[in-house]
Write a structure and sequence with these properties.
By secondary structure, this protein is mainly α. The chain is built from 10 helices and 3 strands; from the N terminus they run H-H-H-H-H-H-H-H-E-E-H-E-H. The longest helix has 30 residues.
Length: 326
Amino acid sequence: MSASGGTKAIVAALGANLAIAAAKFVAFAFSGSSSMLAEGVHSLADSGNQALLLVGGKKAQREATPQHPFGYGRERYIYAFLVSIVLFSVGGMFAVYEGYEKIKHPHEIEHWYWPVGVLVFAIIAESFSFRTAIKESNELRGSHSWSQFIRRSKAPELPVVLLEDFGALIGLVLALGGVGIALLTGNGVWDGIGTVCIGVLLILIALVLAAETKSLLLGESAGPEDTEKIEAAMVDGVTVTGIIHMRTLHLGPEELLVAAKIAVKHDDTAAQVASAIDAAESRIRTAVPIARVIYLEPDIYSETEAAKGPDREATPGGPSQSPADH
């Protein structure tokens, strides 16, 4: 996995969650707090999720084969989607069920110092993990807002870790609130309410992750910035006079497919066109290094074909994305 895959953030989150999960289960054993049980399962699920992300990153590095000629880059999207399923089922649904049972059959929390102490420790540990994820994400998100970064990122690992850590911190605050109110009032129902809130939060985060990774699995185009760079690099104004139409597709977070029909002059020789295509591919790879698979088809731009309508699929000869170039 490349640096942009957020390996450091994943490892930091994995270490923190394993330690926190062990502490929470110990606290549950001594106190009987359902919030502690739900949070322990949550941390255990998060640990499994980070392991899935690491496995996905490893599998994505396999070389292309005749059966999979474009490689295995999308393995990272598949494993990120599995994370959302685990978070929804093991984390969210279990917490809602456990909270419901605690509300129906409440009991006082014993040895209150165990859950309170573990929750404070967990908040500190998760904060360090969250800080690492934020630091790595800031190197990639540029001027984008956090919501834009999560929605537009082609590498799923950092958004997943960010949302997991954010959800974990909010969940810990909810658990601490539920345990605290239950201790103050002597009513264990509040512990159950806190647990249900944790479950609902995890389900919402899982749905967001599922929607984003589903979009990546279906296939997303290059971002606006990369698209502009590719278009600018493709046209030299001499042999390649314009772009009739272009499609881009992420084969993985760090691998982009570019397919375009380019306009050339009607009196250019085959050798000139072939040389221009080679030069255009070199310029594209220089401008956008992740553009590793490039297919360029030369064509004669036709004003007549372009006038037939705006549907580029129906009018393969036009219209151009840059009419001023013709």
